[in-house]
Amino acid sequence: MPIKANAKKALRQAKKRTLANIATKRTYKSAFKNALASVGKSEAAEMVRLAQKQLAKAAKKGVIKKTTAARKLSRLMKKVNGAIAQK
After folding, report:
1. Is the pLDDT confidence value at 87 over 80?
2. Which of 14, 19, 71, 82 counts the most CB atoms within 10 A of its CB?
3. CATH number of the domain to which 62 belongs
4. In this predicted model, what pLDDT tens digit does every residue of 49-73 receive, in sequence order?
5. Which residues of 13-33 are buried (b: 16+ CB within 10 A; e: fewer)?
6. CB 45: neighbour CB atoms within 10 A?
């Protein structure tokens, strides 16, 4: 455990940031799963838009890297467009 005051504060800040990062990850992961589940349905476009929005937010906050967000979105779009093409 930290002894100095600044170390205690740093620990508090790290815990707070960790919780915020986990919440952000949870939102983009659930949006991503919802978008994958809605592939082929009428609300697929809206779900993909929400997933894209959440990925961009996570990248902007620094929770995930910009390239990681782009890769995840690219893979999602590939699956969605593949399902549309099969119909």
Report:
1. no
2. 71
3. 1.20.58.110
4. 999 999 999 999 999 999 999 999 9
5. eeeeeeeeeeebeebbeebbe
6. 13
Distance between CA atoms of residues 57 and 50, nearest Å? 11
| Number of domains into which the chain is organized | 1
- Max Cα–Cα distance, the chain, nearest Å: 64
User: What span, in angstroms and rounded, lies between the C-alpha atoms of 52 and 48?
Assistant: 6
Structure tokens at 65: 């890297």
| H helix runs in 38-86, sequence order | 44-61, 66-86
- Tokens 């990681």 -> residue: 68
Report yes or no: 51 and 34 within 8 Å, Cβ to Cβ. yes
pTM of the entire predicted model? 0.82
For residue 13, what are the domain limits? 5-86
- Please check whether residue 23 is in contact with residue 46, taking contact to mean a CB–CB distance below 8 angstroms: no
Rounded-to-integer distance, Cα 49 and Cα 6, Å: 42
